[in-house]
Amino acid sequence: MLYQNNIPNGNSVPDPCNSGGTWAAVGHYDPKVGSALTNKFAKDFAAAGHTWTRELCMKDSDEDTYTNGQELGDPNCNWTPGNQPERAAFGHPGIYNLQLKSIKKFSSSESCVRKLDILISNK
Ligand SMILES: [Ca+2]
């Protein structure tokens, strides 16, 4: 996942479906499969030429009121590739945290990731 290096904390984005875990494929709805459906952050990232621009940093791709920069630990949009971000990432820039609150309960046969896919496809 080379794109991980193009965003701050790209290799340590929290997995909202798995407390303490990380979400490797940040632009996708499946944490590990880069070919899975892309999320809103991925679309904005692509529009920025797969680079971390000030505009992308200031944007709130998943509309959860936190900018992508805030969620990824670059609240002042100063990060450049290869350097240490100002803070640790605390949120996933492509998954609206409130959506997760509404899907906390799922049966053992359903995964959180699948629930996310269903939510998004109904949007
Ligand atoms: Ca956000």
TrEMBL record:
This protein's name: Temptin Cys/Cys disulfide domain-containing protein
Classification lineage: Eukaryota, Metazoa, Spiralia, Lophotrochozoa, Mollusca
The species this protein was found in: Tegillarca granosa (Malaysian cockle)
Signal peptide start and end residues: none
Occurrences of domain Temptin Cys/Cys disulfide (ranges): 3-95
InterPro entries recorded: S-S_Temptin (IPR057626), Temptin-like (IPR055313)
Pfam families per record: Temptin_C
